[in-house]
Each structure stands twice: as C-alpha cells, then as structure tokens.
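User: Second chain of the day. Same drill as before.
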Amino acid sequence: MKLAFIQALTRLAREDNRIVLLTGDLGFGVFDEFAREFGPRYVNVGVAEAQLIMAAAGMASVGMRPVKYSIASFATCRCFEQLKLAVAYAQLPVIVVGAGGGYAYSSSGVTHHAGEDISLLCALPGMTVVAPGDPQEAASLLPQMHSAGRCGYFRIGRGKEPACRSISEPVLGKARLMQHGRGVAVLSTGEIASEVQAALDELRRRGVVPSWYQYHTIKPLDCQTLDAIAQRVQTIVVVEEHLAHGGLAAQVSNHFASRPSHPALIALNTGDGFVLGSPHKDEFRRNAGLCAASIAEAVMGIWKEPQAAHRAGSTASA
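Assistant: Same format as last time:
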C-alpha cells in the first residue's frame, strides 16, 4: 500500500505543481525518486512533528497543497494540537498520511501503536478520515482526496498488503461492496480487509456467505448504504484494527442510536487497553481476535439465525 501511495502521489505531483511532500525524517528509499524528480517540493523537517504540521499549514495558507507523511502514531498523537488549530480550525487542504495505522508496527511497542488514530481525527470538525484496505483503494482514493480540496487523514498500511476482490470501485465517501451475501453484513475498514477476505473465503467453504462492505471512508460515514444494509440483515459485524472507542464501530453505533430499530451490532476490535510487549503483527491479531480464523468463528457463532431465515425462504442479497 505504501508503494501504491507514493506512485499515486507522484502522478498527482506531475499534474499539479502545488503539491509538496513533507516528512519527519522518514521514508528513506521510498521517497528517493520523488525527491530527485521534484527537488524542493520534497521537504524533510527532521524529527519535529509539530513543526511538520505547522510547515504544512503555512504552505497550504499560501496556495500550496501539502501532503504530510509520518508513522501513524507520530502523525496524529504527537501533533494533535497543531492538527486541531493550524489545519482543522483553519480548514486548510492538508492531507495527513499515517503509515502503519493501527498496530502495523506492533513489534515496535506502544510508542508506534496507533490504535486511536481514527478516533482522534474523526473528532476534528471538517476532517475527512480515510483508511484504505489494499493498494487499489490507496491509489484510487488519494487523488479523490486531493480533488476534494479539504483537510484529511489518510491511514495506510506498512507495506505489501494483498489486493482484495471487490464488486465495486473505491469512491470517496461511499462504502465499497466487496461481496454479496445474506443475513449478516461484515463491515471493515483499513488493512484488516485482508484478514476479512481470508475469513470469508473459509466461511464460503462452509456454506456461510455474509455480505461484506469495506468502509474505507469513516468520516463522512456513508449512512445511506448503512441504512440500506440495515433493511436486509439481522446482524452487522464491524471489524477494525482500532480501540473500542471512537472507531468505525462507534460511528455506526452512533448513527443507529437515533433509529427506533436496527440490526444487532457486534464489534471486533482491540478493546480498551494497551498492547504490551512487542508482538509480531500476526501474533497480535491472533491475541486480539482479529485474525482470519477468529473473524470466521465470530460470524459462524451468529449464523444460525440468518441460516434459519434462508431455509424459511428468505433469499434477498445484501
């Protein structure tokens, strides 16, 4: 996904000479070609995340279109006040890219964990929050965010995330239909999409076929699709590599809070606690119940109701 991001940004920079890439002493090797081609439009401010945001805001205020890149925990937590006051409050067109969102850097310890990044940025008024699930989404959604001309957070993986099969194309602000199904709908966001795809492949072999939507855009939330899903299923399962509070599941729950009735909601996330130690990403996901096997078992545990409904004659697809 990281490669897809820089390739998409390079294409945009060739078309729009206002684009400038800023980083905080990161991206060596990844950004070498960008730096060679665009020279002063690549700026390394050093290990100074607050200054990184202020520099981006200053550039945006005079008509440039800055894209700020850092590890997700550094891109959000270390400079949250600057994001709030210099970017969101001023509504400047700065795109903040957080690499390794969630727990992609799980083995590097709590300093590199970004389990709260989505909640932090969703809390800022006017901020668009996007978490692509695979390279295609990253390559498609970055130009759309640039065209929108608003401040935004773009959470990408650490690299080498597999492509996911889908039925529809990635559209900013619109949930992406990945698989038709019945009874249960699975909603995912970010690179956990690869685990969801593996889980659904296993479920299909067992005759279990829920629908699947990738909510790459968490804010603004695609409520129209969410309401349509609610009309077709008994249960919605939200899968995200994020803390229990403030992520996609919280946004979905908040939307349904004003509705007189809605499907049952099940949230698969990292709960309410720090991830201690330095586990490998695969070990972390197994422990958190976010690996493909755990996701498949969670869906199997609630499948009896839609299965019974299907035997009774319900064949509608979500």
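The first strand starts at residue 19 and ends at 23.

User: Great, on to the next one.
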